[in-house]
Structure formats: C-alpha cells, structure tokens
Amino acid sequence: IKHGLPLYVLQDVGCSPNDHKFNYKHVSLSPSQLISSDADGAIHRAGRFRVENGSLDEASDYTPGTWRRTDVHLENPEYHTRWYFKYFLGKVHQNYVGTDAEKNPFYLSVVLSDQNNQRVPQYRAILWRKTGTLKISLPYSPTKTLSVKSILSAMNMDRFEKGPREILNPEIQKVRVTPERQPGSVNFKFGVLFARDGQLTDDEMFSNETGSENFDKFLNLLGDTVTLQGWAGYRGGLDTKNDTTGLQSIYTVYQGHELMFHVSTMLPYSKENKQQVERKRHIGNDIVTIVFQEGDDASSSFKPSMIRSHFTHIFALVRYNSQNDSYRLKIFSEESVPLFGPPLPSPPVFTDHHEFRDFLLVKLINGEKATLETPTFAQKRQRTLDMLIRSLYQDLMPDLHKNMLNRRSFSDVLPESPKSARKKEEARQAEFVRIGQALKLKTIVRGDAPTSLVTTGLCRKEPWESQSFCSTFPYEIICADSWGQSLLVATDTAGVLMLDETPTLPPVQVFDKTMAVKQMHILEPQDLLITRADKGKDARLYVFRLSGIKRGLEERQLVRSKCDCRENKLEKTKGCHLYSINTHHGSELRIVAAIRTKLLLITRKHPRFSAVATGADSPVEEFQYIREICLCDPPVVMALVDGPTGENDNMICVAYKHQFDLINESTGDAYRLHHVDANRVNFVAAIDVYEDGEAGLLLCYNYICYYKKVCPFNGSTPMIQSNTSDFHFSWNQMPNAIGR
C-alpha cells in the first residue's frame, strides 16, 4: 500500500487436496486507512482529495535526476479482462443462458483452449451476472468430460430458477462482445488545462486564449498535433466534421492505447462567455485532467477546489523548471479512488523528458482505471450491465422453448454429435466461426480491440487496403522483401534494386542483372539474405550477410555480379528450382531446397559453433546439410511446419499433381493433407499459420484458400482429420501470389 499498489488476498477455496481453485479478492480500504498507511508524508490530504507529492515539503531543495527509476507499468491491462474477445470470439465455443435462484438472468460461455501456449488444453469459462463478470480456468481431462453444472458449481452457483440452455445461434457472439466493452479499457481522453502564474479560479484558467512557449513544448512531448477535420482515429468526443470543437488537438498512441487530449487553448474561445462553457464542457467531463501551471514552485499552489467539477477525480499538476530543464509532478486524487501506481519518486522531479512522458501517461491511464472502480462508477456500470443482461434475456425468451435451445441442457460441454446430425452440426460450427472471425476483424479495424491486436495510429488502414510504395517503377518485379523501411526488389532486366521509403530518392542497384534472383527472404534478426538465382542446372541458393550488403552500399562499392557471389553459394543446392524456410523458428533456421524430386534439408548451426565470431563475410560455413528426402513428383509449392517439440515432428508441406501432402522431416513418411477436386490445378501458396501455439496451413490454389489445422501431433504422426476449425474462402480473381 505504501508504494501505491492495490492489495489482493489469495484464497484457497479448493475441495480436494489435488484440485485447488483460487480466488483473487480485491480489498477496499477506507480513505483514512489509505492516507494513514503512508508514514513518510508522501500522501496527505487536501480537502476531499489526497495528494501525492513524493516529499513533505513542495518547496524543499532537490537535486534533479538522482532518484532511482521505479517500475512503470500499466495496471490491470485490458487483455487480462477481455477474455471473450481474446479466447472465445472466432473459435468454436458454447454459450448458455439461464436464471438464478433470485430469477436474475445470467450468461455462461465455455471454450476449450490452450494454456499459456504450453499446448496443455484447459477450459475457460465466463459468467455474466448483474453483479459483474466472473472468469475461471479449469483443467481438461480426456477421460472426464466437463458439464455445465460442474462449471457453475465451481463458480459457486448451485441453485437455479431455470436451468441453463445452450444458444446455438451464431449471432449470439455479437451480443457477447458488448458486456466486455467497459469505458476506459482501450482508448482514453484526458483534459489539459493551462494556468498562468497567479491564476486562482477556473474562469481565469479557462479564459487563457493562448498558452506559452513552455506549454507548447509540453504539448509536443505529450503527442502529435492532428487536424480534427476528417480525423479517422479515436476522437474522444471531439467534432471531426464541422470544426465546432476547434481545428486541432493533441493525440498519441501509447502501448496500443489511443489517447486524445482536450487542450484548453485548442478548444473554442469566446470573448463574450467569461465561463468558457464550451471548454468546460469537455475538460470538466474528463475523469483525469492535467493542469500545466506556469511559474516556479514558490508561486501560488494549485488546489482542486479551484476547478468546479464533480466529475474530475484526478488532477495531475505539472510545472516546468527552465533553469534545469526539468518537470515536477504532483497528483491529486479524489478520496474514493483506490491507490494506483506508479508511485511518485522523491523528489518527483524528472530531467529525462521521455522518461517523464512514460511515467505521466502510465499514471494517468492507471488513475482513470482506478477511478472506474469507485462506488459511483461501479454502481453505474452494474446498473448498465444489469439492464443489458435483462434486455438480451428478453430478446431470447421467444426461443427458449424451442428444441434447439433445450438440446444438451446440463450436458457435456463438448459432446460428440450423433452421426445423423454431424454434418449439420459441422456446418453450424463453420458458420459460427465465420461470423466470429468477421466480428473480430471488424472490431480490430474499428480500434476497439484489446491492445495486443489493435492497429492504431495515424496511418490506420483496412487490412485489405493497399499502400503504394513506388508508383512509377519501370521494371517487372520477380520477387521482393522488406528490409527495415526499404524494399529489396528483384527485377527481370535491372538486377536487384533497393527502394527507399522516400519517393524522391532513386533506386540503388545491389546486384547486377547477371544475378537473376527468383526467390528471396530477408531475415533481419539473423542478419541474413537468402536468395535462389538462375534456373535449370545453374540454379543455386545463395546466402549473404545483410550487414555486409549494407556496408557495401554505404561505402558505395561496385555493384555485385554473379561472379562476385561465388563464396555465397550453397554448393549442394545446384539445380534447385524451389526452396522454403521456417517462419516460426526460434534458435534454429531450417531451409528445404527442392531439386527435381529430391528435397534437401539444411539447417543453420548454432551461432556459437558458427563462423560469425570470425567476422567472415560469407555465412556459408554456418549451414549444414541434414538429409535428403525423395518424392514421387517435383513439388510446385512448399512450406515448413514446426512441430510442438522439434524432435521428429517437424513437417514439410508439398503440393504436386492434385494434392497437398505432409512429409515428416525425420522419416520422410508422407501423409495426405488435402485433395483438390478440379481438372486443372494452379497451386499458389502454402502458408504456415500459428494460433495459440498450434500450427495450421493456409492452402491456396485456383480461386480457393483452405485453412487446415495440423496440430496437435500424435508422436511423429500429424492429426490431419477434419476439424471444426477448418474453413475456406474464395477470391474473385486467381491470385499470382499470397504472403503474410
């Protein structure tokens, strides 16, 4: 408590010695307890606000930059709270509805998922009730199927007015996402109020038509100045169509969260309105407000009572000291707000401006999250959740007596469907997954997804929206790969060129046209460029160090020719017409080269056994040849699939004739993965995809993309039978290539 962290009590409420279930209990303390808990005076009272100042005497002498940096981290991150979006949405799971003993409706969702990417299956369950949301994880046993009743019992629900019944309609996912959208979980809006030295009332502060040089410097530190007209990002309640809330504002993205600042001097100013109602309408309704006060520490101190707002619960007082180029921070928190971190250093003075920005933004985000736990907001959230659950229950009432809802009531969570109904059930589950994945994608694009998935920033685009890199490129492109902010392109007649992101800079030639590159991969973490050049008997794989190529470009050395790359050839790859690398690799890079019907498996040695330390220009000596595998036909498409252990369970997906096969790297055994029912087959790609640690393949041919999960593995034999997670989609035109 002394360091501003929340207190939790771990309770063992398990039943048997081998089956323990724990509850985390948040302990609420009274304001007097919170304040008296800090003995050194870093937290004291100011009316109905408590004050964090980092030291007793605000005007005491201090030496900036001598404090030890504390662990600055976001508390209660939303990816811990938004379970349904992360673990349920877009996957096959069960949803149930019922009423408890007090006739209050509840909802239950259950999914069988992986435990922390350890390939250990477990059940996750979410219970929605008027009092809040309860989440639980339960172990999976292949010999004992879990029932809905046992899950609810583990959540301390044993009595019901109406037993839970399963909802099979896929549209239920749309309403399941809604209860998780709590305010302040993804995007935040904060007020920024400029106060001149000596100003003592909010009317004076809100009437500042302009700021100051130091204030502008502080705003530049907070974020970017954006034009509101046509703004497509998070707007924080500002008008982005008619300029009624100003022309510009300050915006930034921090750890995936979009932040919009309501800056007093950027909001509309009115000479006739002394109270500046338009400015107060936004800043006065922000939970957190930054007050930037001009003047030194000896000038009149800010007090929360100067601002007439019952909604603002946290004030962050910021002062800039031009003598030592430092910022000083002071936090005022309404007494009902739980303590939140990070704790202010003593003294609360920051000479590193970027460090101060990190500290301030984390403190503001944590403060708003803590405020949402106060009784005022918690009761409002509970009323909203209760109304939402009752409304959803009323919408489902007409269907509660239909057979499809009564089926499997109080039965196993993941039952085997009868053979007669299996095809129908598989079709329903496929539609269930399709709707869920579409909803998940829509939420991500909208910017309302958990921060681990959200695509935010000034350049947010639809996933399928193309972005032009070079609009006037005169050569036909054979292949390409990105290198930092640049693009390495192999052309038909000009060799290999480097394109910079700056459109005004001309392309730089890296290899001349004697190096007819047909495939390439840039692996920046491994400092490698892998290429396949030439065709027929002259084709080979080449490996280069990126650092060596970059050094040559910086020193403006001669463009490399095929003759200059003799030391970069992997000799045993002569005649290679196709190669593939593993994209999910950890420490070991694997390459499979196809030479007609022969597959050659190559790995890169561990760096400590390689020639990296010698500074050799060519990395060829770092690669070793493992084995050869013979096929019946030359492969047209290949992909490497990493097994869960890496011991005898790595696979190679190959496409030839009318089929995709999986080849065991260790034994060479082949397994039929997918047969193509078509007279003519144009194989496009096989792309390895990993989700929650499990491998899958996106098989692309003709107009079709077919997803097939190939994990978990059973020893060295992949489990590739039909799975409810399999799906396919079609293109309007046949693609030439598909990449991730």
Automatic annotation (TrEMBL):
Residues 176-392 form the Rap-GAP domain. GO terms for molecular function: GTPase activator activity. One of its GO terms (biological process) is regulation of small GTPase mediated signal transduction. It holds the Pfam family Rap-GAP_dimer. This is GTPase-activating Rap/Ran-GAP domain-like protein 3. InterPro entries: CNH_dom, Rap/Ran-GAP_sf, Rap/Ran_GAP_dom, Rap1_Ran_GAP. PROSITE patterns: CNH, RAPGAP. It comes from Poecilia reticulata.
